[in-house]
Amino acid sequence: MTLFRECFRHLGQVERRRIPPTPREHMRLHRLERPEPWPSELVEAMRAGPPDNWYPDYAAFTRRLSDFLLLPQENLVVGAGIEDFIRSLILLCCDPGDGFAFTWPTCAMFDVYSEVFKARPVRIVTEPKRLLSVHDVTDKIDSGVRLLILPNPGQPVETYFCLAELRHIAERCANVGAVFAIDEAYLGFGAETALPLVDDFENVVILRTFSKAFGGAALRVGYAIGQPSVIRPLNAIRESGEIAGPSLHGATVLMDMWQSYVLPGIEDVCRGRDWLRDTLLAAEFDARGWYANHVLIGLGNRASTVATRLQERGVHVKANFPAPLDGHLLVTCGSVLLMQRFYQAFQGAL
Asked: For the residues of 171-235, what is the DSSP string, one character each?
């Protein structure tokens, strides 16, 4: 029996897996989230609302976000994390066989949605010991590519492009008629924003989240910024109630407490990241990480064994990457104290 449109009849063969749960008492340094709990004052503010069981006021949240960002509402659309927009952009941009370009390896959902929508994956391979150049990206963008999503900064390899370099990439995408989505999930930890490009390029859209710098991964709140010609289609296909009321309340609390709790939390992560990177480099390990909330450690053929030993000690890091990243561990960073605890466990696992 034929139940679905021809372009989706393959979905029964698409494999999706959940990441196994981590015991709460363990050190969660493998999910690129805030690894330490929020301060009690912030938690209490989140518990204070919403007070009823009605549908939330989505328009009020968008107004609050607009005020926080100092951007017009017509340039914003809210969604269920950045992943919501990844899926929507592939759906809007790519017919089966059209090119979808992205740095690789990175977010696993890029490959998943390429398979789901039958877009042709155009992988821009990142290597830990070689900086990705603008030409590495633009050389992949031809007339068959309809969408480029570029994490900036990236992970697990911390690729990073300055505004001038991003402008060059945006021009290349505009010339071939491709949408250029800049994934700024890790904005706040030291990277420059690409926001000025939105005024100059109709094909540029910036994707952001409350999961990383805000520390609200559990909320699943994200937003996109662009010209109305991009934002209106994204707004048109959103769900009528795209985010739960408690999540909107939590994100509002984070904006309200930006100066008092969120920004100091970001500064704690940056200090912890810098301490871990510099400590590893001083001990002559291959370590890198300057613009996001993670440090990549090169261990060669010891990486898998060290990751297993760390997990046995209740410390979880991201490992088992494909080549050319095999032999590396990715560590989500927290405060200096947490990174000191990690480093002690790391030394014991060597």
From this structure: HHHHHHT-EEEEE-TTTTSSPPP-THHHHH-TTEEEEEESSSTT--GGG--EEEEE-HHHHHHHH
Same domain, 149 and 187: yes
pLDDT digits (tens, 9 = 90+) for 177-213: 999 999 999 999 999 999 999 999 999 999 999 999 9
Helix (H, G, I), strand (E, B) or coil at 264: helix
Helix-, strand-, coil-residue percentages of the chain, each rounded to 5: 45, 15, 40
Domain end, chosen from 256, 272, 291, is at 256
Which pLDDT score, from 0 to 100, does residue 272 have?
98
Is there a contact between 216 and 194 (Cβ–Cβ < 8 Å)? no
Q: How far apart are CA 150 and CA 101, in angstroms?
A: 8
| Residue range of the domain that includes 175 | 55-256
Minimal CA–CA distance to 347: which of 319, 315, 325?
315
Cα 256 from Cα 239, distance rounded (Å): 26
Residue 21: cis peptide before it, omega within 30 degrees of 0: no
The pLDDT score that the predictor gives to residue 41 is 93
